[in-house]
């Protein structure tokens, strides 16, 4: 069987049963359930504190009607964060490396913001297509450009997350393969490669957290424009 | 009629001691009302004990009677070697990725673990402290209110003294006012009387002076020239006589 570095991204199957649902449900099993007690254990206290702080910070620039999105944005953030971080463990499958999953998050949510904008305040939403202070001659071209930029947003959201995570995982695989092979041939170079792998792993942890945050932040930005 | 017997016998059964109560209660289902859920048992303060961060302490306790202290470690080593030698777990590039990720996780847990735990504990403690503060402030304010009430009661006892003092005060004021007025009246009367006296003095003095002047004027006017000559001649003879007597004595 010829294996390639891209096999880690193939949809997991076990005896013909797709395990994608299990991979998507894993974070839910690991996160503690909020309880009705007044004082909780450390994990739950930290989770509550983090969620409260994050939601407050995210919804700060959004006006009152947009606060309906608090739940979905916060849960999306936790979901993406946990999926990304769990995918950094060895032999795990990261669902967010699949373009289908990411576009499945990006397109409906982005479309919802656009439709909300067009329904409630159509003039204002269309006015976003023309930045202030453009010279008269540039207006037609600029409107076309802005429309294209609007349409490309979901694609950008999805592909950004996919590309970052896929690239990160691939790099880890490549460098660890290099380390594995070099260990027997040139141990000195292998030590340098090991250091590189360590730093790359650190970077990947940061990227995992940041990419999840950026996804949700951009969605909140699109919401802020349209609501 | 039979149903009545059943009802009577059932009520008799309920009151007929422990066995009877048990027979009736057996039909009631257990732990369904919310009353049985309270009070909720307290949460354990710390999580289950673990050794080396992952392995629960219970495994070590389980194996201790048969294999002593080193038992679980031998089990772990043996398991690892078994999996490696039988190639159940193959060392490949993922192993190194796992090692580097494990190193990062280990470092993170060691460095930031206690800080994060202390932060979580502080969050809970702040919550408790806030509630405690509310309770303490309420208690302090109530105690203060009790003290204030006692003071007010003590103050109320001295009411009569205050009234007496006030009464004395008012009486003194009235007295002072009366004396002032009396003094003022006396002064005014004296002033008027002094004026009358001065007026009379002036009268008498003027009369005296006038009379003296008049007398002087009439005396001076009554001296005729004949009288003046006679008086002057008399004065000369008197003088001569005096000169003679003095000459005679000297």
UniProtKB/TrEMBL annotation, chain A:
The chain crosses the membrane at residues 12-31, 69-89, 101-118, 138-159, 171-199, 205-223. Keywords: ATP synthesis, CF(0), Hydrogen ion transport, Ion transport, Membrane, Mitochondrion, Mitochondrion inner membrane, Transmembrane, Transmembrane helix, Transport. It is found in: Mitochondrion inner membrane. It is a multi-pass membrane protein. Coiled coil: none annotated. GO terms for molecular function: proton-transporting ATP synthase activity, rotational mechanism. InterPro entries: ATP_synth_F0_asu, ATP_synth_F0_asu_AS, ATP_synth_F0_asu_bact/mt, F0_ATP_A_sf. GO terms for cellular component: mitochondrial inner membrane; proton-transporting ATP synthase complex. It comes from the Eukaryota. Component of the ATP synthase complex composed at least of ATP5F1A/subunit alpha, ATP5F1B/subunit beta, ATP5MC1/subunit c (homooctomer), MT-ATP6/subunit a, MT-ATP8/subunit 8, ATP5ME/subunit e, ATP5MF/subunit f, ATP5MG/subunit g, ATP5MK/subunit k, ATP5MJ/subunit j, ATP5F1C/subunit gamma, ATP5F1D/subunit delta, ATP5F1E/subunit epsilon, ATP5PF/subunit F6, ATP5PB/subunit b, ATP5PD/subunit d, ATP5PO/subunit OSCP. Belongs to the ATPase A chain family. This is ATP synthase subunit a. The lineage of its organism: Eukaryota, Metazoa, Chordata, Craniata, Vertebrata.
UniProtKB/TrEMBL annotation, chain B:
The keyword Transport applies. GO terms for molecular function: proton-transporting ATP synthase activity, rotational mechanism. SUPFAM superfamilies: ATP synthase B chain-like. It is found in: Mitochondrion; Mitochondrion inner membrane. One of its GO terms (cellular component) is proton-transporting ATP synthase complex. Keywords: Acetylation, CF(0), Hydrogen ion transport, Ion transport, Membrane, Mitochondrion, Mitochondrion inner membrane, Transit peptide, Transport. Its main location: mitochondrion. Component of the ATP synthase complex composed at least of ATP5F1A/subunit alpha, ATP5F1B/subunit beta, ATP5MC1/subunit c (homooctomer), MT-ATP6/subunit a, MT-ATP8/subunit 8, ATP5ME/subunit e, ATP5MF/subunit f, ATP5MG/subunit g, ATP5MK/subunit k, ATP5MJ/subunit j, ATP5F1C/subunit gamma, ATP5F1D/subunit delta, ATP5F1E/subunit epsilon, ATP5PF/subunit F6, ATP5PB/subunit b, ATP5PD/subunit d, ATP5PO/subunit OSCP. Subunit b, of the mitochondrial membrane ATP synthase complex (F(1)F(0) ATP synthase or Complex V) that produces ATP from ADP in the presence of a proton gradient across the membrane which is generated by electron transport complexes of the respiratory chain. ATP synthase complex consist of a soluble F(1) head domain - the catalytic core - and a membrane F(1) domain - the membrane proton channel. These two domains are linked by a central stalk rotating inside the F(1) region and a stationary peripheral stalk. Belongs to the eukaryotic ATPase B chain family. This is ATP synthase subunit b. It comes from Sparus aurata. The lineage of its organism: Eukaryota, Metazoa, Chordata, Craniata, Vertebrata. The gene is ATP5F1.
